[in-house]
Amino acid sequence: MHSLFQRRGEDGIAMVIDFLLSNARLVLGVGGAAILGIATLAVKRLIERAGRAADDEKMEQKMAESWEELNLVSASPTLIKKGIEGVVMNHVSKAAKQQKADLCQQPQMSSLEVQPKPESKSKRLQLCALSLQERLQQFYHTRAALSPYEVQRAQALALDICTEIQGFLHSRHPDMPLGDMSLGGSLLDDLQVVSADHACLLVPLQLEASLWRLVPGEETLLTHPLHWMVRRVNLEYFPKGRSYWDRYLVGGYLSSETVVNMLNKAVMDTLNWPTISSTMDCLVRPAPGGAELRLEIRYVSSGSDQPLFISMLPLLREGDVALTAQPELTSPWVNAWHLSLYPWETQRLTQLDTTDNGCRRQTLKILKAVCRLNPTLRLLEAAPLANLILHLSDSESDWSDTSLDRRFQQCLAELIGYLEQGALHSYFKPAVNLLSSLSEDQVDQMGFMLYCAVSEPEILLI
């Protein structure tokens, strides 16, 4: 991870570490809490970086001993409490402010360092002159939002691929009961950021209502609220073979993994991709690696090296329930289908923004772009960020354009709290922890980066 304090040098790092360590006992008294989780993490990360940079072994040993002492104290389950901002965060922010000053002043570099280009210096000076509100708007329009041309080109290409695949399946497997394939996901909903590099083709499977029942995850042996199953019913009246999908039964349930394998062989391994590539003036091929139904498309004439990935997603719909066949999410259960909460989340965000002309979707796109462009935050996907905003909308009513900067800072603070707890519960399925896939070290890295950005959020917008 790129260190926030790297530009400050050894003296600046030592100053922050000395302050944090000397005030550890003071922090312990705030609200009767132990050393707050991310605060001790900040000390640990600073010590690690200072230890690697310091030539004095005695200094390194002293800092290591201080950290061992801190490690004896358990971390608090609550991150931001009254008092911590005045004790620790303000002093960490000094280092961040120094970095900001460095960006503006551009101190003379050594002969071993590469001199910045003139335009790079002017951009930094311009960044320092803007307010956070202006920086967020600039970041949104230059980094997060996609150009209409880029979106239209990706959508058109995805729809052309969709037409080819659907026509092929109808001709080769005319008895396969499929609905009309369509484009879905963030590219369609104007929630994709940075670049139009992925699209989703929805492949609806048509089931007979009298022969199949969608079973909620809580009612299955899996007990996972997002792992649903599709049970074959009424076998005494309609034996196996009455439904086309009976051939993909495993243990009395429609197997998502078997359906994916079938489509893999029927489409990915069979369709003449070189011919399709020649007619579309682009290189189309199954994406290498993995068993996912995913295509890789590379533009030939545009000169762009950025590929477009198109995923085929088998889908079952019943009312407002949408189940997808994604073995990578439901493994090792071959019969499990994934309950997609994306339609509910997107619809709720749109509904809220429409009601009060709010900036929730814009905030989400900024957060998504920040996380995608920052290597430390890259594992934070769209789902936890969308749910973060939905939770915050329950307690915060002002989402006007003029409050974008305040909501952005509030999202950072809330996200730190969720990381420190190790849990961000789904807005629609509270039993689901959207941070469960992150390792402890990944949470630590993200928490430290966001902790530093609370007082200086512009470090995420550079």
TrEMBL record:
Name of the molecule in the record: Mitochondrial elongation factor 1
The organism of origin for this protein: Mola mola
Keywords tagged on the record: Membrane, Mitochondrion, Mitochondrion outer membrane, Nucleotide-binding, Phosphoprotein, Transmembrane, Transmembrane helix
Location in the cell: Mitochondrion outer membrane
Domain Mab-21-like HhH/H2TH-like: 359-446
Entry annotated with the keyword Membrane: yes
SMART domains cross-referenced by the UniProt entry: Mab-21
Transmembrane segments: 24-43
Primary localisation category: mitochondrion
Any Pfam family hit: Mab-21_C
Matching InterPro entries: Mab-21_HhH/H2TH-like, MAB21L/cGLR, MID49/MID51, MID51-like_C
GO cellular component, one term: mitochondrial outer membrane
Domain Mitochondrial dynamics protein MID51-like C-terminal: residue ranges: 150-344
GO biological process, one term: mitochondrion organization
Membrane topology designation: Single-pass membrane protein
Keyword set includes Ubl conjugation: no
GO MF, any single term: nucleotide binding
